[in-house]
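Task: sequence design from structure.
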């Protein structure tokens, strides 16, 4: 299952047997990838496409592409509303490839009229294809365990989430990989079993007196059962919703401090309804020292609307269409 500022992209690692969530490497504005309850959080329609390459300079290094669309829907004069989103992604890591399609839905309930505070509950369903091309293995001939065939397995998946937010803060928790693995591309006796992934995200937004300058500190914590834990500390700042800079510090929860740290700067610009963003990932592991880092590019089209009760779309009010 896979996700305003830090560039969201998905880095993929698809294991042979488990429905693992491709790791979110940098975040932009699509918090829905981290929690289905945030689907349709803003009063706008969005279509995004992205390309992410990890460890550039190393042959067959991981790369990911995705297309993402979301929107908010409500009945006339309703104070509660619905969000819908769809994500199609492709991950490749060496001989492993992963194709996935996700459909997410969220229901948003207003808790406070004065602060426009909402509680949201979300659900995401997915279908996932994992492929292992043994023909890519080097000099495998003569090994009885390797056939040289192209192996493939399909699996469904499910995620749930809950969130709370308003114009000042947001937070939520989500659980992924809730369905058992049904089919494998390797021997199920030796393959990794499905592990649940838990994600917590929270942040606040601080604005200048004119709202032209804004800062948004946030954090994301991920934990996959028996495998890894990770925390990201993020800070993003933007000017009139048209230019932004961001920085994320990532720490994997291991004993090796140097190899588990990464720094992720990002930069973006918006012209009319189009946004273009670039992000760079710099790690300190031995692999990173032999590569040119990780590079991400995102193009997004965003149609903003006047808010009529729901959380407003910031870009709409920066365009002079209304008053904050």
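Answer:
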């Amino acid at each position: 299952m896979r996700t305003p500022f830090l560039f969201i992209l998905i880095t993929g690692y698809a294991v042979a047997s488990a429905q693992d969530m491709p790791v979110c490497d940098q975040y932009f504005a699509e918090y829905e990838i981290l929690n289905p309850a945030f689907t349709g959080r803003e009063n706008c329609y969005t279509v995004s496409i992205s390309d992410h390459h990890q460890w550039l300079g190393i042959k067959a290094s991981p790369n990911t592409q995705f297309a993402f669309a979301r929107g908010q829907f409500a009945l006339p004069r309703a104070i509660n509303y619905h969000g819908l989103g769809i994500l199609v992604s492709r991950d490749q890591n060496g001989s492993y490839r992963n194709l996935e399609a996700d459909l997410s839905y969220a229901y948003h309930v207003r808790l406070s009229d004065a602060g426009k505070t909402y509680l949201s509950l979300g659900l995401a369903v997915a279908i996932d294809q994992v492929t292992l091309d043994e023909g890519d293995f080097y000099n495998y001939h003569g090994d009885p365990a390797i056939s040289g065939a192209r192996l493939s397995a399909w699996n469904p998946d499910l995620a749930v989430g809950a969130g709370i937010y308003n114009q000042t803060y947001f937070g939520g928790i989500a659980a992924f990989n809730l369905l058992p693995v049904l089919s494998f591309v390797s021997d199920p006796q030796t393959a990794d079993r499905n592990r649940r992934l838990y994600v917590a995200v929270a942040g606040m937004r601080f604005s200048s007196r004119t709202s032209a300058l804004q800062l948004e500190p946030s954090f994301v914590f991920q934990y996959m059962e028996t495998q890894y834990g990770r925390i990201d500390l993020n800070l993003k700042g933007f000017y009139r919703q048209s230019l932004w800079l961001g920085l994320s510090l990532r720490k994997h929860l291991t004993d090796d401090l140097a190899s588990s740290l990464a720094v992720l700067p990002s930069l973006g610009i918006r012209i009319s309804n189009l946004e273009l963003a670039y992000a760079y990932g710099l790690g300190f592991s031995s692999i990173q020292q032999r590569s040119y880092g990780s590079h991400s590019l995102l193009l997004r089209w965003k149609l903003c609307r006047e808010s009529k009760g729901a959380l407003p779309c910031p870009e709409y009010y920066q365009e002079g269409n209304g008053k904050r």
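The chain is about 0% helix and 55% strand.
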